Amino acid sequence: MKTTILLAGILLYTNVALAEESGKQLFNTLCLRCHTTNPGKGITKVAPPIFAVVKHVRSAYPQREDFVQQIVDWVEHPDKDVSLMQGAIKKFGLMPKLPYKPEEVKKVAEFLYDEKATPPTWYKKHYEEKHGKNKLQ
Ligand code: HEC
C-alpha cells in the first residue's frame, strides 16, 4: 500500500515536472545541439543559428499563430519544397525529420517568437549582403 502511494506520488511529480518544462528548456534539449544561439564569427557547420531561422520564418509569417504553426509543421515534416531557407539546405543539407512531440515543438516555437534575440553584427552584414539592406532590424 505504502509503495503504491509512493509510486503514485513519484508519477504525479514527474508529470508535473514534465508539464512545467518551459519552451526555453525544450529548445535547449531539442534544438540547441544543431541550432546555436551564440555563434562565434561565421556560421556553425551543422545548421543555421537559431536567430537566422527565426528571422526567415518571422518575415514570412509575422503573426504569432502562423509562425508557431509553420515551425510545428516543419519539424514534423521538413520539406525542401516549403523551405524558407533554400540557401541553408544547400549549405547544411535538409533538416532531418525528428521524432519530437508536436505539443513540445509548439512550446519551443512560442518561446522563439516571444524571445527577441538580437543578432550579432557580423550576421547583420551577412544577411544584408545576401538579402539586401533594410531587411534586418
Ligand atoms: C540534427 C540537427 C537539427 C536539429 C536537432 C534541429 N534542426 Fe532545425 N535545421 C537543421 C538544419 C541542417 C537546417 C537547415 C536546412 C533546412 O532548412 O532544412 C534546419 C532548419 C530549420 C528551420 C528552417 C526551415 C526552412 O524553412 O528551411 C526551422 C524552422 C528549424 N530548423 C526549426 C528547428 C526546431 C524548432 C528544432 C527543435 C525542435 C530544430 N530545428 C532542431 C538541423 C536541425
Automatic annotation (TrEMBL):
The keyword Cytoplasm does not apply. PROSITE patterns: CYTC. SUPFAM superfamilies: Cytochrome c. Residues 18-116 form the Cytochrome c domain. InterPro entries: Cyt_c-like_dom, Cyt_c-like_dom_sf, Cytochrom_C550. Gene3D superfamilies: Cytochrome c-like domain (1.10.760.10). Keywords: Electron transport, Heme, Iron, Metal-binding, Photosynthesis, Signal, Transport. Residues 1-19 form the signal peptide. This is Cytochrome c domain-containing protein. It comes from Bathymodiolus thermophilus thioautotrophic gill symbiont.
